[in-house]
Design a protein that fits this description.
This is LysR family transcriptional regulator. The protein is of the alpha/beta class and 314 residues long. The chain has 12 helices and 12 strands. It is elongated.
Amino acid sequence: MTLVQLEYLIAVDTYRHFATAAENCFVTQPTLSMQLQKLEEELGVQLFDRSRVPVRPTEIGKEIIAQARIVLAESKKIQEIVQDQKQELSGELRIGVIPTLAPYLMPLFITNFLEKYPQVRVVVQELLTSEIVEKLNHEQLDVGLLVTPLENKTIKELPLFYEAFMVYVNPKHALAKQSEIDPSELLPDDLWVLNEGHCFRSQVLNICNRGGKLSNSEGTNLDYRSGSLETLKRIVETQHGLTLLPELSVLEMPEDKKRLVRAFKEPKPLREVSLVVHKSFLKKKLVEALQKEIVASVPQTIVNRKKQQVIGVK
C-alpha cells in the first residue's frame, strides 16, 4: 500500500469517475485503474462498485476511504513541519468565495497578499456556500470565505468581521425620502432578491421575516431571477422597488449611486463574514497569513464592529 494509491483512491471517490480522477491526478486512466486494482488485491476487498454510473464505493470501501483521507492528511503535515522550520510560505492556496463577497472583498486584500508571499500560488473559485463546504470536505479547497454560522460539524469557522446590510432604493420609492429604514417597512412586492441557493437571499428574507416566500414581480410584467447583486441594482435603478446590499459593496460606489443607499435603524442587521476550513485543515501558516491580510484590508469601522444582530443564513 502506498500514499500514491491512497491519493488515487480518494480521487475516484471525489469525482466518482475513473477518467476524471486520472486527469486530476495527472496520470492516465489505465495507470490509475491498475494501481487501484493492486490495492484491492492487496487488501482482499472490492473498493468500488464499477457496475454503477457514477461509480460508487462499496460499504467497506467507504470505511477505507475515510481512513485514507486521515492518513494522507497526516502525511502532508510533514511538509508543513519542514516549511515552519524554514519560516517560509510557499505552495498553492485554494480559496472558495461566495458571489456576494468575491467582487467586494477580494480586491481589498489579494494584491497585497500576492506581493507579500510571492512563492504562494493562489487559486480562487467563486462558488455557493454548499459547494464550498462540499469541496472543503473533499479536500478540493483549502479555505472558504463565506457567511456564518453554518452549524456544520466538519467545518471550523474563524469570524473575520461583521458587515451591515444596506438598502438600495429606487429614487421614486417612498422609502427614498428616509435616511434610515426599519426592516418592518420593507414590503415583499417591492423587494428584488437573488436566486434560491444564495445565502444572501435567505438572509434578506430573514430580515424581512418572509419565511422564504417572496414575489417581487407581482403586479408587473417583469419576473427577473438573478444571481448577481449588480444586476439587481440596475433593476432597482431602471424599474422600481429596492434591494439589499452588503456594506462592502457600497464602499467604492460612485456618489450618484450612493444617493440611493439607505442604512437600517439600530440595531442594524449584520452578517458574519468568516474564513472557514475543514476541522482537520492543513496549511495553517498560509491560512493564518490570509486571515491577517484580510482583517488588515477591511475598513476598521467594520472590523471593530461588535457582534450584534447577526442574521442567519438559513
